[in-house]
UniProtKB/TrEMBL annotation:
Gene3D superfamilies: 3.40.50.2300. It comes from Enterococcus ureasiticus. One of its GO terms (molecular function) is protein-N(PI)-phosphohistidine-sugar phosphotransferase activity. This is PTS sugar transporter subunit IIB. The modification Phosphocysteine is found at C10.
């Protein structure tokens, strides 16, 4: 499997930045080849052609329909992060959720 490109988004990119760092650590421990970056939700369109998965902060659930319109036609898996691990910035749980969600599509 080639490197998986993941974009995390939250309102400003700050909290998702901490989550991305924790996810990178968890992915490394699991020997998963992932590039995980965090940005503001306003930047999704700038990255849509480069990513395989988009993880959205749970507080942004209200923009999921808008995101679906943005990614229309691109093979991007959209995942709404769970409050349980997002609140604690649990990168391991987030990586597990990501992997499970991608396997559901296989």
């Amino acid at each position: 499997m080639s490197e998986l490109n993941v974009l995390l988004v939250c309102g400003s990119g700050a909290s998702s930045g901490f989550m991305a760092a924790n996810m990178r650590k968890a992915a490394k421990v699991k020997n998963l080849d992932m590039s995980i970056v965090a940005r503001s939700e306003s930047e999704i369109e700038n990255y849509i052609e480069e990513i395989d998965a988009l993880m959205v902060g749970p507080h942004l659930e209200y923009i999921i329909d808008e995101i679906d319109e943005i990614i229309h036609g691109f093979p991007v898996k959209v995942i709404l992060m769970k409050k349980e691990y997002y609140a604690t910035l649990d990168g391991d749980a987030a990586v597990e959720h990501l992997v499970r969600s991608l396997k559901e599509d296989e």
